Structure formats: C-alpha cells, structure tokens
## 1
Amino acid sequence: MEKYSGLNTMWILVGAALVFFMQAGFSLCEAGFTRAKNTGNILMKNLMDFCIGTPCYWLVGFGIMFGTGNAFFGTLDPMIQGDYSAILPSGVPLWAFVIFQTVFCATAATIVSGAMAERTNFAAYCIYSAVISLIIYPISGHWIWGGGWLAESGFHDFAGSTCVHMVGGVAALTGAAILGPRIGKYDKDGKPRAILGHNLTFAALGVFILWFCWFGFNGASTVCMDTDAAIARAGLVFFNTNMSAAVACVTTLTVTWIRYKKPDVSMTYNAALAGLVGITAGCDTVEPWAAAIIGMLCGITIVFSVEFFDKIAKIDDPVGAISVHGVCGALGTIGVGIFSNGLGTEHKGLVYGETAQFGIQILGGVSVAAYVAVVMVIVYTILKHTIGLRAKPEDEIMGLDISEHGLRTAYAGFAMMPEEYYEDASVAIAAAAAEIKGQTPVEDAVPVVKEAASVSDGTPKFTKVQIICKEEKLYALKTAMSSLGITGMTVSHVMGYGLQKGDLEYYRGVPVETNLLPKVQIDIVVSKVPVRSVIDTAKHVLYTGHIGDGKIFVYDVENVVKVRTGEEGYDALQDVE
C-alpha cells in the first residue's frame, strides 16, 4: 500500500480550498464593476460555472488532461477510473489531486463571465461553460501539465498564466467580440461611453479576496512541503506573487495619475490582478527583482490594453478580463523566457544570455491562444445560431436579474439610479416598444389626467408635463424627449401606490407583496414644443400594456424665471448662452 504524506496532502487540500474561494472574489469583483440590475445574474453565473464544471471535469476533463494518451490528447476516462499514480505528486492521494485540479479548471471557466457580462443568454453561458470544462481547458492543459507536447518541449507554466488565465482570457476575447458591445456602450460615431460599475466596495473586496487566495493558487502549486527545497521554493513563490501585484498597483497608479491627471481607482485594482496573473507562470523560477519588473510591465500594460480594446478594437469588456487574464497572462508566459534563472526550466532566460526558453514560451503561448480561439469561435457560433448567444435587447435594458431569473432587484430596500445607455431616440423607442406584451389599449394603460388650467391673458403659454413611470424606462423617455427638442427636466425618485396596488414576486418560493413601488417622477415645462407631442411620445415609450405603466399629468404654469440671468417667461426656457 502506498504511503501518503499528511503534510503534502494537507498542503494540496488547503490550496484547493483557497483556489475555490477565488470564486467569491470573482463574483464580487464582477458584480461591483457592472450595473446593479445584473448583480443576481453575475452571482448566479459564477456559482454555476463551478457547479457545472465540477461534474464535467470529473466525467471527462480530468482523463483528457492527465490520461496517458498521446502528446495532444489524454484519454476518455469517465468518472476517473484509471491509474494515475505516475503523475501524482509525492505522497498525495488521487482524489486530493483531482479536487486541486478541479478548482483550477473552474477558474478558467469563470474568467469568461466578466468580459461577456450584462448581455449574455444565461442558458448559452451554462453550455459554453460546460464545454470549457469538458474539453477546451483539459486539452490545452494536457499539452502543458499532462505530459503533452509542450511539456516535452520544455514549456514552463508553473501555476497557470497560460494554462488557466490565457485560456480564459482568449475565450473571453472571442466571446465578447462575437457577442458585441452592450447597448449604448458606443455612440453613433463609435466613441465609447463609460458605463459605471455600481459598487466599488464589492469590486475592491473581490480583488483583496483574489489576492489572498492567489497565495494558494501559486503557492500550493509546489504540490509538496516535505523537503527543504520545496519549503524554500514555496517561500519564493509567495514573495514573488505578492511583489508583482504590489508593484503593478503602484505602476498603474502612477501611469493613470499622469495620463488622466488623477489616480484611477478601478484601474489600479485591476492592476493588482494583472500583476498576479503575470507572475503566475514564473513565480518559482524568477528572482524577486524580476518579479518586480514583471509587475511593473503588467501595471503599464493593463492601462493601455484596456484602452485599446475599449477605444480601438471596440470590444466591450465590462470588467477588463481580457486585458487582465488574456494579455497579462501572455506577458507572464513570455516573462519566463526573459527572466528565468534556470531553476525549474530547461534553459535560462534572455537576461542570462540564453534564447531557447524564450522561443519555447512564445511557441506555447501562440499555440494555446490559437487553439482556444478557433474552438471557442465554433462553440459561440453554434450557440448564436441555435439557442442564441445574446440576451434580447429588451431583457438587456431591463436587466438580466429580472428577465433571466425573475429577481426584481438584488438590493431589496435600496433605490438604484438608472443608467444612460441609449445611442439615439430610435433605439430608445424601439427598445421600449419591444417590451409590449399586454392587450390593454394604450389609452387605458397610460391615461392622461388634465388638471384645471389658469386663464391665459395672451402671454406665451407654459405647460408642465409630469410623468410618473417605471425606473427602467427613465432614459428611454429622456432620450425620446431630447429628440423633440426638450433640453431640461427634473427627475425625482418616488414611491407609488395606485391602481397597481403593489407588486407580487417570489423570494425562495414565498410570495412577497410590496405595497409601495419605486417609481421616477419626471417634470418637464414646455412652451415652444407642442404638449401633445410630449404626451404622445411619452405614451409610446412607456406603454407595455400592463398595469403600472405610469401616469401623465398636465398643468398650466403661471411663469418661469431663470435664476442665473433673471430672464422670465419664454426666454427663461431657452437654452441659449
């Protein structure tokens, strides 16, 4: 009977637990950098890619990755029934090693979620997440960690800059490119608009969790702690991991301070992840000074990479996953070929006067990127033309929480400011019209209540149109009003109780009755613009045919005074300098 090492086994299991907890970090980070209306969807996807990936990797993936097949493919070994003693770390039982590899597989799958956030069909996400865990990650993993052709060539990727992060980053890049940008991300001239994340605290906590767990991601990849050499190696891995992340943050802070005149908070937090990804391939084979340089390079690269994909390539990546995992994963892979001191690699890096390792690293990175890109394009294309890769426009506008999961909000009791995302009035009106599902005539669904008017004495007539509607309709309405020439409005968050008499939804299967519903109240005063045009446009944008579409009130206004200039009446309503 084989003798097991309690120390090595515990080291592996603790590492597996830390890498598993990275799912919490990814969940918080992605939710924080995206909008509140998609929070539940983000959290669900990060849960399911792990839960789907675990049985998929057990059924098929592990055998493909570590089976003794050939240089390109392992074996099909459902439920891991074969003999893997030849590849097991010293003193570590099979199932401890399997769970350690499972959590790495799940990490590769979850990277894709952030880049394709806020507009992906949830069913399609579940399918391509399963495909990544079943075959895509295991095949390239076999090349690198399973004794495949890259391993035989001397390719070095200690903890997964290529095997995990580049695989996820390239899958994210191809997916985001095929999926297209979020509605309103680019204006009609192609200029990007900033779509702010809703909770920077979530994002920051997620980054710190990931940083903490990365010590298990990289550190436990030594897979043993029962020799002096292994202990020394683990210490170096921990130190280099931390050094690269810290220097990357300082570098990005400096670059953004110079470039944007202020140090950018979200970009600097992204830099921590960039530095962690960059050092992952070579944390065991580079000196601390080299880890600092890798961190600095990642800190510079992340800023310009995010700008490139956002402004030039026009690939919408809400959380920067492509730049963090794909680009900095590639940078870390190449970094081994530049800075390796020869411990753990067949050759030293360029800085030591040798070129062979550099060439091997380039070959490995390009091969894995090309393989993942080709296969994922096929997978995404099939999904796009079958069940649909992208959520419907009306679902995206409403938010995937409600459309995909029936969750009205992930923040019950908190009012969230709707965001602006429409390119022009036609998009706004079309998106609003696409939600029409009821049979109630528009005249009944959105009645106009006319208040008593004051007597006109021949002076220009001023009319206030007060509109009460659903929060998610605000910017569709705002954009449509702008197309009429209306340049000013007042918006208030209100709580409403009318004929709708609250709303019924379910929480954990139990009906939840809400008596007061969050609404927005828009006040517009017009003189030049015909009141009837305002009313008709508002009705068209707001109408869905369901109770709760809103109300429109029309009032006469006695006078208007512009405080800045002292103008009164008609002139006070004109937006002229």
## 2
Amino acid sequence: MRLVKIGLGNVNATVGAITANLELCLEQARGMAAAGCTVAMFPEQAIGGYPPEDLVQWQGFVDRQWEAVRRFAAETAELPMVSVIGAALAVDGLRYNCAAVVAGGTVAGIVPKEKLPTYTIFYEGRTLARGIAGFRTELDGVPFGDLTFRADFGHLAVEVCEDIWSPEGPMRRRCYAGAELVCNISASPYRVGIEGTRHELISTRASDSQCTVAYTNMLGGNDGLLFDGGGFVNQNGKPVHDAPRWTGGFTTAVVDLDRTMRLRSENTTWRDDREQYVAGFPMPGTVDITSLVDTSAERAGLRSPFPAHLSYFLPPERPPVSRREAFYEDVLDALALGVGDYFEKTKAFKVIGVSLSGGRDSLLTLLIAHRYASRVRPEDPGSLLRAFYQPSRYSSDETRLGAETICRDLGVPLEIVSIDEAFERELAIVERFLDDGQAVSELTRQNIQARLRAQRMWNWSNSSGGLFLQTGNMSEKAVGYTTIGGDLMGALAVLANVPKTVVMALLDHLHVKHGYPGIAAVLAKPAGPELAPDQRGEDELMPFPILDACFYLFAGERLLPAEVREILTDMFPEVAGETLDAHVAKFVRLFLQSIYKWVQSPLSLHIGNLDLERERALQLPVVTTSEWTRPAEG
C-alpha cells in the first residue's frame, strides 16, 4: 500500500487582507502537519481573497501575494508535507489565478488556472490571463505553467476551481502524463443545490481520469458572494471523504494511491484513450520535488481506512433527512454567514439593525441576523441586534403585536416610534411643491411613509455605527413593488435574491423548529405593506406562487410571455385563462419597467443562479421596452 493523508483546508479569507489570510493558512498548515498530513490544500486565492475583481490590476496587490507565498514556504520549511495554496500572481506582465506547490521551504512550481469563467457572477476573463496546455516559463526562477509534480509518495497534479468544471480541462492531460492525485483548490460560490452538483461532478472527473481527486473550497462571504467551504476526496469515482460545510478549519482523509494505479491499469478504455491523446497533444512538464521534502516517516504511521460500520459491502445507516428541511437549513446558513461576514469584514459597524414592519420579510431578516448573532454571542445574541417598529395610521394592531412578540422571543431590544406627525408634515410640504390643481397621489402617500422609515434608520446607522439591513424580497423587487429611498434602502439586502414563496416557506420551517409565538403572530395576518387601508400584496400584484413562476420562467428560463402563459395553464388549471393572460402581461410590463430600481438597490446576498444583482448576474439594459416580447405584426 502507498498511503497518503490529505488535508482539506477551509479558509475564510478576506479580499485584500493578505497578511491575515496568510496567518490563517499557516495556522491550518501547522495543524495538518501535526495531524500527519502528506498533502495540505488551501483554497483558490486563499492569500489575496476571492473575488479580487479589478484589484488584480494593482501591481502592488499581486506583488504582495507573491511575497506571502514565499513567506508561507519559509514558515512551513520544517513541515514534512507538500502544500498547495492559491494566489493571484503576475508573470511577464500578465496576471494569473494560480495554485502554488510548496515543499521543504521552497516554492516548487506554480500552475495557472486555464478555464476562466466570465458568466453570471464571474468576470475572470476580463482581467486575468489563462494557462495554456504545454506552456512553461518561470517566475523568479520558479517553474510556471502546465506542470505536474513527482514527490516521494507519488505523482501530483494541481488545478484551480473552474478547471474541473470542463471535461476538456487540464485534469485529463495531466493524468495521461502520470498524475495519480489531482488537487483542485476552489473558491466556488454557494448556489442552491450546488453541493449535489459538485459531488456528481467530482465523481465523474475522478472516474473519467482514473485518479484520486481532492477538492477543497473557500469559506465565507465576500461582498454578495457566499462560499460554503467543504470539500471531497474521491478515488477513481468512489467517494472517500465529504468535508463539512459552513465551518472553518481542516479535515483529513487517507487514500491508497496504489489502488488508484491498479484501477487505472485495469481500465483498458482509459489506456486506449491515453495512447491516442499523447500522440497528438502537448503534454505537461514534470517537476521533481522528491529531494525537497521527505514524507516517508509520517506516512509509515498511516493506516488504511475502513468503514466505521465494519462492512465493505453494506452502506451505512443514516437517519433520513427531508430534502426540504436540508434546503431550508442550507439557505438560512448561507444568509446568516453573509450577514455575519459583511458585518465583521467591513469593520465599519458595531451593531445590526432591522426596521420591523410586522410583516414576513422583516421578520425573516431579523431571524437570520439572530441566527448569526447566536453563533458569535451565544450567551446574549440580542445584545448585537436592534429592532425598530415605526407605525403609521395604517399599521394594524396585529403587526405591532408581531413585532413586539418576536423581539421578546429573541431578546432583541425594540424601539417603537410613530411616523404619523412626520407624515403629516411631509404631506404638507409635497402639496407646496405641486402646481395649482395638482394633488398628492396615493402612491406618493404610501412612499412618504417608507422613505421616512428609511431616513430614520440611516440616521440611527450614522450615529450608532449600525448595519442597516434592507429587508425586501426578490419577487417584489422584480416587479418594482418597492420604494426608492424607502424600503429599497439599506447597507445590505439580505433577502433580495430570495423569492416570496421561499420567504414564507422558511418562516413556516422556523416556526416548526423553534415555535416562537412571534412568528405565529406575523403569519396570522395576510402579507401586505400596510401603507394604505386593508392593503394586501397579492391583491395589488397577483398570487405569489404565480408571480414567482412568472419570474422563474421569464427571467430564469428566458421564455416569451406566450410560452410562460402556456406553462402556467398547466401549473394553475384552476385559474381562468384571461386571468393568467393578465398576470403574465402585468409581470412582463412591471419587470422591464423596474430595472431602473434594481441599479439603485443595495448590495445583495447571492444564493441562486438567478438573481437581480445587475453587476453580478442578470445584466439587462435600464432603458428598454417590452415590444420585443409581443408577436410580430403581419
């Protein structure tokens, strides 16, 4: 047996915090060495943080990372293992997203990322150069390019994130060149359902290339992107290790590389494919690092892993987990991490504030903030939070009760201050602004209330160092059911990419899980903004399940209104055809007219493949019409 122990590090890096990020990596490296690891892995751009975006255009930013990589090598010189760490580096005037291989106090080689994503949330192709098959040069005397590494334990290849997502990535080429263990270091943002996709992808790649794949991922929130950490070790298509997500630190797994090579030698199809490939394509170079580090003593103490349930043939028994419950907890963990890391990493805030309307969105926002606060201040999470209820003449007793009850449930301080007097003053001022014969519109009356609340929250934020959380959901944002300068305001939009139907489902889940009376009090009243008498959101828009279906089909699937209508007919057979026609037409009109609002909304947390962060995902022109959505005349 040729046993190796792999350490998967999950580092919560902050963009630009090069020294702090390096210290996190060094701490984990020492822990992995103490645990007897042969190979230590740290995420993509663990040194500089991800995504750096245009920071890579500053030469000083990439120079500092190269200095940090060399310092990492120097400070791990006595550790008997090979490390793989991510950094943005410059070579011959070009910037690259790289994996550096470190051993025995030396940077043994650097491998640049080949596949640069420039879709949805990614912009790497805009600023970075890509690695090329067969290309090799040097950075300060260190081999750079398409490389593999021969160590005393076996043949190693490294790659960066997106490289594994393409069947034409470098893994196949490097495995045909002899690599047995492929280390993929990633900063793969969380999206709903991504964990299952990653699991299948890595199993497929390990099987296709007949190798052992080790994958580790970035942890934490940077701007609106959320990274869930975790990682996998998969041997020739067989899952070996699944690291926990949403938590820092490292985990380890032991594999027998002799098994990888035995399975490879038995696979005639793989051997045939290799013969054809190496005859016609450039192959990577190999860097011999056997003299740099001796891992034999530590590996001698390794033992082959065996199933904890003591059967190689039977699967382990696991308690069943509802897919819905797992989904709810995953989303809540992601959003709580996003709030917490934004709060901590900006270093601009001392406390977190939520303006409660007594409705569902602000309630869920407070519960998410409390979820974060419970982790960092478990003895008194409410001390990190402030809640405000600002009623007007249209606010109901039920919503006030809901706000008071949930704050009492959570131990969160609540201030109740009416806006009615200020509302009257603003109405009078607006009337003075208007020409003779003009009257204050009903919409203006509603928006004044929302803007007064937001202005007061900003004033509180300025004076207290408070992080003002914006509470609106994605469905209502999509159709402009928001107020510029009002409920669209805040420093961070927590639910801006969470559909309304998901908001309601999450609250149902939290009610079952925690049993807070405050959740029940809010859910007892139909959803509505309470800016006018007896106001209900579904009455003014459409039923939320239909609204969310329109959003998904039109914006997510890029279907035309007629196609959306056809699907809705099957989804909602109880709804009259002319009603569905009206809903679809209304959605498309409001959606395209509301883009100008999106560009003025605060930074939002990204949890899905579809969201309304214009600079991140759905890039639509502000000035557009719906003419193209209608059938051509004649």
